[in-house]
Amino acid sequence: CEKEPSSYMWIYILLGSMLRGIGETPITPLGISYLDDFTKEENVPVYVACLHTVAMMGPMFGFLLGSLCAKLYVDIGFVDPGSITITPQDSRWVGAWWLGFLIGGATSFLSGIPFCFLPKSLKKPEEAKKDKTSRGLLDNTGAAGNKLSPENTKPRKWSVMLKGKYFYNSLKKVLGNRMYFTFLCCSLLQFSSFIGFVTYKPKYMEQQYGQSTSKSNFLIGVTSLPPVGLGIFLGGLIMKKYKMGIIAATKFSLTMSFLSYAVSLLHFFVGCDNHVVAGMTVSYE
């Protein structure tokens, strides 16, 4: 066999994914914290549900974009389309996977520009000044027992924050909260199952149902993700309507998770027979 030249393209994809993760991470914690601090308590579930619903719309459009890119040949713009003799249904077909990265990256860059024009400091509403601020939350938990002096409000360096006791004490207090730790473990299980489902379902549809990569991505984007976004939004409306507290919200989450688990058991009764492959599923004779 002739050794093919190795490609280092995966390094660029790795670095790009790291930068994307760094850029999108602050949206969830800081966005939810902002909504909790600057809105009325009964409206927080709806606003947070809207935030997560919009976040689910992104992967849906991503699958649709991937479906479009998969129909285009990988070397589009560099070869004559008339010279291509294979179709997307051919197993040798490779779609323009790189085109989605360019479109997604340019869109992310343009959508980030308006953040540069936001004011440096925002005015808090009168009803949110007392106990809905992050400082009030820290005071109630005992993390900021002493009053903050001008010296303590100065920005600290990362090295000082990581070396000092403040970081470790805060981390210990957060992980020591049984409700938060249980919720964290539950979220890990839910996201792990959801990611596995979304990752392997397109390939399953290709192998078992003979669909093309383009059509598989299109069906996933249309059928799988919109119901999740709709469920998140309806959950926020239900929490607002019945004004659920922590205990009521926990019972509501437990009930919905149990029903989801029960319905998911039906997947065990749905499946297809394996393809007949000589030497694997049947003998050569």
From TrEMBL:
Single biological process term from Gene Ontology:
monoatomic ion transport
Source species, domain of life: Eukaryota
Pfam families, per database record = OATP (PF03137)
User: Per the annotation, which location comes first and is thus the protein's main one?
Assistant: membrane
Gene Ontology CC: one annotated term: basolateral plasma membrane
Q: Which UniProt keywords apply?
A: Disulfide bond, Ion transport, Membrane, Transmembrane, Transmembrane helix, Transport
Q: Where in the cell is it found?
A: Cell membrane; Membrane
According to the record, the residues making up region (Disordered) are 128-148
Q: Which residues cross the membrane?
A: 6-23, 44-74, 94-118, 179-198, 218-239, 251-270
SUPFAM superfamilies the record matches: MFS general substrate transporter
User: Could you tell me the membrane topology recorded for this protein?
Assistant: Multi-pass membrane protein
This protein's record includes keyword Transport: yes
Q: Which Gene3D superfamilies match?
A: MFS general substrate transporter like domains
What is an example of a GO molecular function annotated in this UniProt entry?
sodium-independent organic anion transmembrane transporter activity
Q: Which family does it belong to?
A: Belongs to the organo anion transporter (TC 2.A.60) family.
Query: What name has this protein been given in UniProt?
Result: Solute carrier organic anion transporter family member
Please tell me the species this chain comes from: Vidua macroura (Pin-tailed whydah)
Q: Which gene encodes it?
A: Slco1c1_2
